Amino acid sequence: MHDITEQIERITMMVLLLAFGGAIAGGLLADIGWRDVLAAGIILLVIRPLAGLLGMYRSTATRGEKVSIAFFGIRRVGSVYYLSYAINQGDFPDADRLWTILCLVVFASILIHGLTVTPAMRWLDRTHGRDA
Questions:
Q1: Does 38 lie in the same domain as 17?
Q2: Residues 107, 69: one domain?
């Protein structure tokens, strides 16, 4: 049952990513300004890694493992759920801008992490003597 559930999750994620790509091609990020790009960069390259490192402060993982985990973060799209919840619970006059920034963060994360995860994991494996 676990294997079937995992396959359904992967298929659903693939469909969502295809829809996300279609939304980007349709102009989802057309209204992005330099402040939005700066905010997304800070979130992706500073806040998320620092929060990850702070969360692993007392972990027994090596420094390389902590940095890798903090940089790559938790996969999937939890931020979408968190922003949805926050917007439904409060009054956010700039909700559309928050969604745009979130979509930019997700898009940049897919690109950056997609390009760097394999070399980073290979390096981490080599440093721990796990590479054949």
A1: no
A2: yes
- DSSP symbol at 43: I
* 12 CB-side CA count, 13 A: 8
Say what the pTM is.
0.81
- The radius of gyration of the chain from alpha carbons, rounded to an integer in Å, stands at 17
Range of the domain at 19: 1-29
In sequence order, which residues have a C-beta less than 8 Å from that of residue 43 and are 6 or more positions away?
A: 101, 105
Across the 132 residues of the chain, what is the mean pLDDT of every consecutive 10-residue run? 90 90 92 94 93 91 87 78 93 92 92 89 84 60
Q: Residues 118, 69: one domain?
A: yes
d(CA 66, CA 68): 5
Distance of CA 30 to the CA centre of its chain: 21
The answer to whether the beta carbons of residues 77 and 99 sit under 8 Å apart is: no
Q: How far is CA 122 from the centre of its chain?
A: 20
Spell out a b/e string for 14-25, using b for 16 or more CB atoms within 10 Å of the CB, else e.
Answer: eeeeeebeeeee
